[in-house]
């Protein structure tokens, strides 16, 4: 496992063997190899959790109470299935917030640095404020059991740039993936309408236990016959009233509401109310197309 500059000057962090040098999360005691014929623990060096259910919003693991913000900035984890719009959300948040708030970004991909390249090309942030982690295996492991590389990248960025917030984009995964609370102070889970309006009710820890659920690509709802009312109702049920925001990340719709929500939590956690004030007067929400609006509150 080694860091940086395997690819010229690109800050590219690569995962090697999962068998050494990893910091394990405090929830390891809940992990065990599941009872399928194949053992994941031997194939890729970590065990998979067997979950009895998706878990509940109100009894989810809360953020760690910590004060070491100067060692590691407030960390926002963005997870969700492949292609749901995580990178589009990272870009949109950077565009919306970076004038007022100091940011840094870590991207995860299994074998490439494509998301990092996309963000560099689109000037999400100055290149040096963004790092790519190549997870080399299950993306969910890199944000849960074996998060050392991501943790290291967040700490390095904090040390170099003292950002108010570091955004970590998980590699796209399935509905069973979720961030470790050791890594993420705030968890956003992004799904999209293109998979159909059934997705929220299928559950999974990202849907039920994320601090904020984003339902992206509402512009495609009609084309795929997804009923946003159903998604809204079922997301609300699955999340016990926890916040959900409909969005079109690619078109900035819903992004100001997402940004304000994250900033507010960050301001409270870090005890810096000025953070939230800085964005209050920022550009208002663009005119939302059908269905692109915050639902069941933003808190
Ligand atoms: N129509 C529409 N397309 C979108 C929207 N947001 C993102 N997309 C498109 O969806 C595709 C996937 O978006 P990404 O942001 O790369 O998704 P991702 O979740 O980061 O994907 P992985 O990192 O590969 O898992 C891209 O072609 C985006 O342009 C949206 O609001 N509406
Ligand atoms: Mg991506």
Automatic annotation (TrEMBL):
Domain (CobW/HypB/UreG nucleotide-binding) ranges = 75-244
> Which is a Pfam family this sequence falls into?
cobW
For this protein, the record's Gene3D superfamilies field holds: P-loop containing nucleotide triphosphate hydrolases
Region span, Disordered = 1-62, 279-299
- Which Gene Ontology terms describe the biological processes this protein takes part in? urea catabolic process
Keywords assigned by UniProt, alphabetized: Chaperone, GTP-binding, Nickel insertion, Nucleotide-binding
Q: What are this entry's molecular-function GO terms?
A: GTP binding; GTPase activity; nickel cation binding
Classify the source by domain of life. Eukaryota
Which HAMAP family does this UniProt record tie to the protein? UreG
Instruction: Name the protein family.
Output: Belongs to the SIMIBI class G3E GTPase family. UreG subfamily.
Mind telling me what this protein is named? CobW/HypB/UreG nucleotide-binding domain-containing protein
């Amino acid at each position: 496992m080694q860091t940086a500059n395997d690819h010229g000057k690109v800050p590219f962090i690569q995962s090697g063997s999962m068998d050494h040098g990893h910091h394990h999360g405090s929830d390891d005691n809940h992990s065990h190899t599941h009872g399928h014929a194949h053992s994941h623990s031997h194939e890729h060096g970590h065990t998979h959790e067997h979950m009895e259910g998706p878990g509940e919003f109100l009894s989810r693991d809360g953020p760690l109470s910590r004060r070491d913000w100067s060692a590691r900035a407030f960390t926002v984890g963005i997870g969700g299935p492949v292609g749901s719009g995580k990178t589009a959300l990272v870009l949109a948040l950077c565009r919306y917030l970076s004038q007022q708030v100091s940011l840094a970004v870590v991207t995860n991909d299994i074998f490439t640095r494509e998301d990092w390249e996309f963000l560099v090309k689109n000037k999400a942030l100055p290149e040096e404020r963004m790092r790519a982690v190549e997870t080399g295996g299950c993306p969910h492991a890199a944000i849960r059991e074996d998060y050392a590389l991501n943790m290291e990248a967040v700490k390095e960025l904090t040390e170099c740039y003292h950002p108010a917030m570091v955004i970590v984009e998980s590699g796209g995964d399935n509905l069973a993936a979720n961030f470790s609370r050791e890594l993420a102070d705030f968890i956003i889970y992004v799904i999209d309408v293109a998979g159909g309006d059934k997705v929220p009710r299928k559950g999974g820890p990202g849907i039920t236990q994320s601090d904020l659920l984003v339902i992206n690509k509402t512009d495609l709802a009609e084309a795929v016959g997804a009923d946003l009312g159903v998604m809204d109702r079922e997301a609300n049920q699955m999340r016990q009233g926890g916040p959900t925001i409909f969005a079109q990340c690619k078109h900035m719709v819903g992004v100001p509401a997402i940004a304000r929500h994250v900033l507010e939590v960050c301001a409270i956690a870090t005890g810096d109310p000025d953070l939230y004030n800085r964005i209050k007067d920022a550009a208002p929400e663009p005119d939302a197309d059908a269905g692109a609006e915050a639902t069941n509150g933003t808190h």
